[in-house]
Amino acid sequence: MSPPDHGSTPNPRSRSPRPFDRVLVANRGEIAVRIIRTLRRLGIRSIAVYSDADAAAPHVRLADEAVRIGPASASESYLVPERIVAAALESGAEAIHPGYGFLSEHAGFAEACRDAGLVFVGPGIEALEVMGDKIRAKRHVEASGVPTVPGIADPALDDAALLDASATVGFPLLVKPSAGGGGKGMQIARDADELAAALPAARRIALAAFGDDTLLIERLIERPRHIEVQVLADAAGTVIHLGERECSLQRRHQKVIEEAPSPLLDEATRARIGAAACDAARSVGYLGAGTVEFLVSDAAPDEFFFIEMNTRLQVEHPVTELVTGVDLVEQQLRIAADEPLAITQEEVRLTGHAIEARVYAEAPERGFLPSTGRVVAWREPAGPGVRVDGGIVEGQEITAHYDPMLAKVIAYGDDRAEALDRLDRALADTVVLGVDTNLAFLRRLIADPAVRAGDLDTGLIDRLPEPTAAEPSPGLLAAAAGLVAEHDRVEHDGATDAAGPRAWLDSSGWRPGPHRAPVVLLAPRDSVDDVREVAAGAVDTSAEVDGVLVRRDDDGTVWVHRDGETAAFTVLDRRARAAARRRAAERGGLAAAPELRAPMPGTVTAVLVADGDSVEAGDAVVAIEAMKMEHRVLATLAGLVRLAAATGDLVSRDQVVARIEPHPAASDPQSSSGPHEGAAPEASHQE
Prior knowledge:
This protein is α+β, with helices and mostly antiparallel strands. About 30% of the residues lie in helices and about 25% in strands. The protein is globular and about 75 Å long.
């Protein structure tokens, strides 16, 4: 069975050819590409904007026109309303589609568009202001009869007052930035001591991320399910919903897997939660596409509580499109052009099942740290029911300036089981070489028995074992060794040609006896002391043969993909191997490496100790932020800190940011029988 068609006939009634002639897309990456595709289908001229880092990005190439808006930093380009509005006026755009993130829920930006005579493809300013403030939104929908989670939402309360008031709600509690989104700054507190520590931490993150440190606290519902409802509303006051999406598979409040419909809800509850979502939207005179999010108790699926309303297109909107056949971007454009909805609630049908996986540039086995680098290979999956919303191309540089999501892989099936099977195959066929990704983690996640059974909750991922790097298969090792040997042979032949024919430079390495394949020393990129001696066979590096794809990065790293497996290897010579052994010997009896290294490239946002301070193992030393995430580098052992980085420094992955000089007892070889069995020399450490 194929998904409902939302390409040529997105709605059952005829529509005008196009609502606008020229639309500027104020975003980047996969969502900008997604919006531009609908603009092209409708015959609307698309205008992209780009920072210096995105000059050759896919959305720029796909658009009909493109306007530069500033340097790589989002705070100087995509997040500057004046630059976006100026680009729209310069290019003659009639409307601006903000996508999601960046300025999509910025009331000031919507107002600036209005003042400049531009149509903002989104809700009105009142809806943005009310729903953009979690405290105000909660109070507002409560007045409309929408059920909410018990909690305290008073912007006038300071930390001490929130601590006192928490007794009326009861633990455990969830601390949330009022102006936030995406789970950033959320903290869980199970008692008063944890709450006292969580409040200042949440305020600090909220102020840095959103410019507003207002907090609210809510009762933490244990084992909740996160279910959201897609709504559409036109200027005539018509509000409908397009069913729900299950978004319970989250990590640190960030969604990982989304699906439609939810495997939890029955038809009666689906109708009730849909009606509540429409009531919430109607209460603010909503306009366009929006999402109303609810918590649903797994133990009582007929009870649901309003969390917030996202006044924009959601990352996970493709699953709704696939089960309804409605192009949500087209609906946004037509509503913004004052067209009435051409579909009624009775005409909405949910057919089949769709599941989406977010592909991130991150390393799950390193604590899901963001990964940066040049994409040396990119292959999209294909097949029945498979859709890919991607925003990368080969050769593109993945930087720390933006969110690490690379693409979304979506699968549709007659039922949930078929959709899961198709998604697993599609993820296995997705190839990204040059940066770490979460592809293997996603496949393990959707194979988990609880996920297959639909027994989901927002804490499921956190209860799973920590991801570990898989042992590279012999096939991966052989392919990597073959590439290195071929590269060395080509370089050797070039040297021979330049120097003239000399017997000792012959590439064959001839010697009496049978031919021996060259041996290559390889180590997993993040375990350089785990050296393998691999006999190198022939490999064709110019093509993908039998599902094997190999590439060598600019820094010499060898990347291999084979039958759903991906690995990266460092190539060593005998001297490098000997040096690694010497380093291990020099550490003597220390249980861990004394060097503290940056777990990923980013900016040092805080130095938490002074040079020369005494610390214990596990104490936070510096904080590093990249791709909207903050990570703390922890002391590996007790001793004195010697700092090698300062606040504001830009650091690279594995750069030493501090060193611990162990106390004499810890470093005395006589005081220890040797390295601890579980020690991980040279490992990065993060909180």
